[in-house]
UniProtKB/TrEMBL annotation:
GO terms for molecular function: endo-1,4-beta-xylanase activity. The lineage of its organism: Bacteria, Bacillati, Bacillota, Bacilli, Bacillales. PANTHER family: BETA-XYLANASE, GLYCOSYL HYDROLASE. This is Beta-xylanase. GO terms for biological process: xylan catabolic process. It comes from Terribacillus saccharophilus.
Length: 345
């Protein structure tokens, strides 16, 4: 009799616990839940959408504790004419972020893409390239000192086979453009957190091994590379995805002394031809969140957009991609609830 009584009491406690957990999860935002894990939860943010789409603005300001400037800080937007810096849009985003106590991630100081036209005319040799790059990096970092203190300094420098990507910076300066960029950024703001950022580098492969070896060597030589950003653009149909391999890789990066950020996660669905797409998507988001939570060096988990109607996948790959946490009407998807569950338990 006594035994049965305890079973009842145990069962009741369990049910109450589950109910309270469910209630807490329902009521809390991603941001609130991530605070308890000491994790920044971010999204990339677009200026136009922030101003024109009320639902987007509500989600951006309530669900996330970090914003990455999606396009407005790229070189073509920031310096459309040589020496004529256009800070207006990002300044407005900074102000709005401050009003909502949201941290900002600067994206991106050096990339082979999103370049203004004048670069191909003015950057003709090593000296002109160094002058242009140093000025660009230091003007931006100095302008945002005190309001943006984390930057993706160099973006997408390696090819899949582990060779360096052919960009105007590699052609003119050579591989040194990478360590130089970090040094120039550090000079402009000694307190900033400086990241290398790439895609396809979230597991061990030819590209990520080449990246880690080079970044580690530079770091040993005193180049101020604080962290590595793993973009984590995932194709739900890609059978190479492996939570264990991601965990192994994050641990290796941590052991090499780098901070880690998941910087651009999305999970596109257009290549997955079965009815299970939403579950696979939720599972992938959940797996990467779990790895991040289990890796002390991982301090940020950022998704590349808020709702499916403002996504580069929808615009540039397929309207069936639907890669984000909220649908085109701003309604939460299964992946959103999965992330909340991972953060809560
Ligand atoms: O806003 C203009 C619009 O006014 C114009 O009519 C239209 C015509 O092409 O273009 C619109 O701008 C586009 C912008 O996205 C906003 O949608 C640009 O052409 C287009 O090039 C731009 O693409 C961005 C891409 O980077 C290139 O800069 C994507 O939004 C952005 O999500 C994507 O982000 C990159 C990261 O920076 C680095 N990692 C990969 C990631 C995905 O490609």
């Amino acid at each position: 009799m006594k035994k049965r009584k305890w079973i009842w009491i145990g069962g009741a406690i369990l049910i109450i616990g589950i109910a309270i957990g469910g209630y807490l999860m329902e009521k809390q935002t991603l941001r609130k839940l991530a605070e308890n894990d000491d994790l920044l939860i971010g999204s990339s943010i677009r200026y136009d959408a922030l101003l024109e789409d009320d639902t987007y603005q509500r989600l951006a300001t309530t669900e996330f504790s970090s914003w990455t400037i999606e396009n407005e800080m790229k070189m073509d937007a920031m310096q459309p004419e040589q020496g004529a810096f256009n800070f207006v849009k990002v300044d407005e985003m900074v102000q709005m972020a401050e009003e909502h106590d949201i941290k900002l991630r600067g994206h991106v100081l050096v990339w082979g893409e999103a370049l203004p036209e004048w670069v191909s005319q003015q950057v003709v040799d090593r000296a002109s390239a160094e002058q242009v790059l140093k000025t660009h990096i230091q003007e931006l970092v100095k302008h945002y000192k005190g309001s943006i203190d984390t930057f993706d300094v160099v973006n997408e420098a390696w090819n899949d086979d582990g060779t360096l990507r052919d960009t105007i910076w590699l052609r003119t300066i050579g591989p040194d453009y990478i360590p130089l960029a970090f040094q120039w950024a550090r000079e402009a703001n000694p307190d900033a957190k400086l990241y290398y950022n790439d895609y396809g580098n979230e597991m061990s492969n030819a590209k990520s091994e080449a990246m880690l070896e080079a970044l580690s060597n530079w770091k040993k030589d005193g180049i101020p590379i604080d962290g590595i950003g793993m973009q984590t653009h995932v194709d739900a149909a890609d059978s190479r995805f492996s939570k264990n391999r991601i965990q192994e890789w994050f641990t290796r990066i941590e052991d090499a002394g780098f901070d880690i950020a998941v910087t651009e996660m999305d999970v596109k669905l257009q290549n997955l031809n079965n009815g299970d797409a939403k579950n696979v998507q939720a599972e992938r988001f959940g797996d990467v969140m779990e790895v991040c939570l289990d890796t002390p060096a991982c301090g940020e988990f950022t998704v590349w957009g808020i709702s499916d109607n403002h996504s580069w996948v929808t615009e540039q790959e397929s309207p069936n991609g639907k890669p984000l946490l909220f649908d085109e009407n701003g309604q939460p998807k299964k992946a959103y609830n999965t992330l909340k569950r991972k953060l809560l338990f």
